[in-house]
Amino acid sequence: MFPYPSGTLHLGHLRVYTISDVLARFKQMQGYDVIHPIGWDAFGLPAENAAIERGIHPRAWTLSNITGMKKQMMAMGGRWDWDREILTCEPEFYKHTQRIFLMLYKRGLAYQAESLVNYDPVDKTVLANEQVDSDGCSWRSGAKVERKMLKQWFLKIKEFQKPLFEDLDILAKNGKWPERVLAMQKNWLGRSEGVKLQFEVQSKTGLMHPGLVEVFTTRADTLFGVQYIALSLNHPIAQMAAEKDRSLRAFLGRAQGLPPDSKEGYLLPNLSVRDPLARIMDGRTEPIPIYVAPYVLDDYGSGAVMGVPGHDSRDHAFWRANADNAPIKQVITLERGVPEPLVSGSENDKPMLTKGFVSNNIKNFSGLSSDEAVNEIVKLLREAGVSIEKTENWRLRDWLVSRQRYWGTPIPIIHCRSCGSVPVPEKDLPVELPRISNKKFAQLKGGNPLSEASEWKKTTCPQCGSDAERETDTMDTFMDSSWYFFRFLDPKNQMDLVNPSAANAGMPVDVYVGGVEHAILHLLYARFISKFLATTSAWPSGGGPENRGEPFKRLITQGMVHGKTYSDPETGRFLRPEEVDLRNPASPLIKTNGRTANISFEKMSKSKHNGVDPGATITQYGADVTRAHMLFQAPVSDVLEWDATKLTGVQRWLSRVIRLSKGFFIPKNIPEDFIPPYDLDIQLPDLLSQLVARKLMTPAKQPHPNKPWPSEEAAMIGAMKESEMLLWTKTQETIASVTKSYSETYSLNTIVSDLMTLTNLIWDTPHASRLTCYLQYQATAHLLRMLAPIAPAVAEEGWELLHEKVGTVIESDSAHPLRLKGGPSIFAHGFPTADMSILPALKQTLMCVVQIDGKKKFQVEIRKPAADVKPSDLEGHIFSKLLETEKGKEWLEKGTGKLWKNSGTNVPHEECPWIPKGHRSIVVKDGKLVNIVCPERGQRTMGGMEANAKAWDEQKASAAVDFNPAQASIPRTNTSKASPSKVSPPKASPQKVSPPKVSPPTASPLKEKDPDLVEVQHPVTKEIIPTVNSYGQLQMGPRILSQTELDIVGENPAKKRER
C-alpha cells in the first residue's frame, strides 16, 4: 500500500486496504512468503499548499498526518510489514529517485527543452499532458490551464512506446488486467497506422518563401476529398504569417483560451497548398486553403492535418463552421461503382466515416477498395517524386517531469555557464531540500521557493569547478510512485535502490490493488520506469522473457464507495442527516417541511453531506464487521453503496459464528473422549476409520445378503446419515469455491455469502450419531480458517473457544498440534484444502420435491435409491430418507408434522404408513417428485376417507400401471388475459363450461390419442380434464384441482370477468 498522507482515512481507503489485507492473509495461510508492505507517497502540492495556508513546514504537516493515519490503519485490523515502511520525502528514499533520474540522463532519456507547456495559474506550476482533463483543467486544482513557452525537463517515454503498447497483451492474458484499464492505456498511447506526406505551400504575394507542410493521415484513401489544410497555433508557417498579419496575431492570442475542441479557425488569406494528386491526375489544379485552428495539436504529427469534411466528423464540423454552405466532397462509398456525390450544405448532411470503395468519378482509382487505393496512391506519388511513406503515429508525448514547487525531489542537475547542464556526481547524492522556516512558508503566495533559496542554489561545477547554480525545479511526484515497489524489497539498502537479487526474486508484483483512476498516470509511468530498470543492472532478469519488465502481474481495480445522500425533492438541495427524520429509513422526512426526502447514493463529498467516518463505524460495529460488510455488499470492481443499516446483518452472522465456536454441538457426555484429529484437513475415510477403531461408529451392514459392500470405505460411508453426508459435502464444496474466489476470481463478496450458508448448515445439522459432532467440529474449524483473512479477530476468538471445550483432552496429548497453552494462532494452521475425491461417493443424492395436492411444499436432498431397487420398495426408501431431514420431519413426522395435523387423524395408511389414512402418495421420476393427494374436505372423516380410498382403488385398478409421466407432457397452462384461447379446454367455450349447460362427459382429444391417459371430472362442471403436476406433466390419479385449473374452466368469477 502506498497512500498519500492526506490526514484522515475515508471509506475508499478502507475498502482498498481491506481487499489487499484479505488477499495477503490468504496467501500467507497457503504457505507463501508474502510481502504486504506499507509506504507513504509523501511529496506533493497538497502538503505544500496546506503548509502555506497554516504557516508551517510541509514536512511537519506530512509527518503529523502519517501519525494520525497509522493509528486509523491499526484500528481496522490490517497487518502490514511495518519494518519495510518507506516515506518518499525522506532523503534515504529520494536519493534513489535522483539516482534513477541520472541513469536516465546518462542514457539520453532525460533532457531539457523549450516547450509549450500546460501551466496551472493556481498552483503556479506546469503539468504533464496526462494531468490536464478533457475540459482543459488541472487535475489537482481544477483551474483552467494556460499554455506557456518554458524550459522544462522531459523523460523520453516515447522511446518505450512500442513495448508499452505491445506488452499490454501480456497483461491481458487470462484476464490479469481489467479490459477497461488496458483500453485506457491503449488509447493514451494512441498508436495509429497511416501515411505521412507533404503538401507544397503556395504564396499569392510572394512575400513568404514557399515551403512544405507535412501531414499524417490514417485515411490516405480520402486524399481525393481534401478540402483544406489546418495548422496548429504554433506551427512555424502560422507564426511566420502572424508577423505580417495583425488579425492573425489577435486570433492566436484569443485562441489560447479556447477549448481544445473549438471549431473556430483563421483562413490564411495569401497562402494555399498544391494538391499532391495533381502530379498523377489531371484536373487537380484548384488550390487548397490553409486554416489555423485550435483543434490541431502541436505534437500530433507535425502540427498539421488535412481536412476531409466528407469523411471525418471533426473536419466536417470545422468546415461547416468556417466555409458556410460550400459543398462537401464524398469520395468513398459503401458500394462499388457509385458516382462521387457532392453533399449540399444542408443541416442533415453527415460524413461517411467507414472504409469502402473509391467512387466511380475518380479516374484510374474508381472501384478500388480503401486499402487498395492507399497502396496505389503511395506507389504512384512516390514514383512522381512526392515525399510520402507509410508510418505509425503515436498520441503519447514525452513525460514532462519538472515542477516549479518546493515539496518534491530536487532534480540533480547543476547549471554551469561553461559546461552547461552537468549531472550531480552520485557520491554527492542526495541533493537535499533546503530548510525553510515556518515564517517563510507563511509568507509564500505560491510559486517556487527554491528559486529564492540563494544560498542553496549556489554551488560549484563538478567538471570545471567554477561557480554554478543548482536546478531549482523538483520532480513530478509520479516519479516517486513509479518505482517505490522496488524499494519495498530492500528498504534499508544505502548503496543501491534495490539489490539485483532481491529484485529478481521479488518482482514483478503478484497482485496490485488500486483504483481505476491510476490507469493512465501512475500505472503508465510505473510500467515505463520498470521497463527501463529491466535494461539496467538494477533488475537484470526483468521478470523473465515472458514478462518483459512489466511491474504488476495482476491488477485489481476496486470500485468507489458512494454514500447515502438525502436531497429536497423540490429544491434539489443536499440535506445533512440531522435535517432528516430517519425513524422510517425507507421514507425519510425533511424535518422542516415534512416532505419525503429523495434518497440516492453519490460519490462522497462535503457538499453532499454524505461522508462516513470509518473510525466511527469501526468503533460502533468493530473492525471485522466493517471489513466483512465492505466485501459482502458489492463485487470488488463495482461501486459500493454504503448503507450502515445493513451492517447489522453481518454483525448477527459473526455473532452466530462465535456461538457456533463454543461447540454446542458436542453433547455433554462426549467431551471426555472427543479428540480432534491431528490433521485438520483429514480426509473422510481416515476420519471414519479412526472413529471405527475407537468404536465410536459401526460400518453399515451389507445392503443385500448376496451383495456385500464393495469396500470397507463404502461400508463406513453407508453408515452415515443424509444430514452428515450433506454437511461434509457442502463443507468441501465451500472450501473449493472459497479458495477459487480468493485466488482466481477475487469474488470476495461471494466468499462471505458462501461462509454464511455454511454457518447456517452447521448450525442446523441435527445430531444423528456420534459422527455428527466430529463432522460439525471439522466444518466449524474449516469455517473459521476460511473466515480468518476477512475477520481475523473473530476467527482467532472462535478458534480459541472451539478448543476450550475439548482443551483438557488436547492438553493431555503433548504431541497434539492444537494444544492451547502457547499454541499457535489460527493463521499458523494454514488454509483448508478440499477433500474432493470422496464427493462422488457421497453425492449419490437427488433433489426430491414434495407436493401436497400438486402444490410444492418443500424440496430436500436425499440419498438416491439403489439402481436395482424394486418399485414396491421405492416408496419406503424415499419416505424414510425424507424423514431424516428437518423439512421432512416438519411436514411428515407422525403426530407433529403439518400433513398429519391437517388430516384430522393419527391413523396411518395401510400400505403407506408414512401418510395418514385416506391420503395417497405418488412417487415418480425415481423419487425426484412425491405428490401426496389429500381427500376432499367433505370426506375428511373416517367414513369419508374409506369411501375415498375405495374410489381410488377402483380407479387405480383401471389405470395403466406402467404409466410414465416423463413420456407424456403438455405445456403448462397459460392463464394470461392476452391469449384466452390458449387457456380454454379443447373445443370448449366459456358458455359450455357454465353450470346451467353441462354436457355429458366425453373423452377429450388427448384421451383419444392416448387411451392410457388418466382423466378426472371437474366436481362442478363435470368437464373431463387431464391431471397435470406443477411441472406441466401428466400425472396419474385424482386430486383437488388447483386454483389455476379452476380459473381455466371458469369457476373463478373474477377471472371470468377478466376474460
Automatic annotation (TrEMBL):
Task: Name the EC number(s).
Answer: 6.1.1.4
Record's compositionally biased regions (Polar residues): 966-975
Q: Which InterPro entries does the UniProt record give? A: aa-tRNA-synth_I_CS (IPR001412), aa-tRNA-synth_Ia (IPR002300), Leu-tRNA-ligase (IPR002302), Leu_tRNA-synth_edit (IPR025709), M/V/L/I-tRNA-synth_anticd-bd (IPR013155), Methionyl/Leucyl_tRNA_Synth (IPR015413), Rossmann-like_a/b/a_fold (IPR014729), tRNAsynth_Ia_anticodon-bd (IPR009080)
What residues does the Methionyl/Valyl/Leucyl/Isoleucyl-tRNA synthetase anticodon-binding domain cover? 727-864
One Pfam family of this chain: tRNA-synt_1g
* Compositionally biased residues, Low complexity: 976-996
Which GO terms fall under molecular function for this chain's record?
aminoacyl-tRNA deacylase activity; ATP binding; leucine-tRNA ligase activity
Limits of the Aminoacyl-tRNA synthetase class Ia domain:
396-562
* Annotated Methionyl/Leucyl tRNA synthetase domain residues: 2-134
Q: Which residues cross the membrane?
A: none
Q: What class of enzyme is it?
A: ligase
Q: Mind telling me which GO cellular component terms the entry cites?
A: mitochondrial matrix
Which stretches of sequence are listed as region Disordered? 964-1017
Q: From the UniProt record, list the reaction(s) this protein catalyses.
A: tRNA(Leu) + L-leucine + ATP = L-leucyl-tRNA(Leu) + AMP + diphosphate
Entry's localization field: Mitochondrion matrix
One Gene Ontology BP term is: leucyl-tRNA aminoacylation
UniProt keyword terms in alphabetical order: Aminoacyl-tRNA synthetase, ATP-binding, Ligase, Nucleotide-binding, Protein biosynthesis
Residue span(s) of domain Leucyl-tRNA synthetase editing:
186-380
Predominant place of localization: mitochondrion
- Assigned protein family: Belongs to the class-I aminoacyl-tRNA synthetase family.
Its recorded name reads leucine--tRNA ligase
Organism of origin is Zopfia rhizophila CBS 207.26
Q: What is the lineage of its organism?
A: Eukaryota, Fungi, Dikarya, Ascomycota, Pezizomycotina
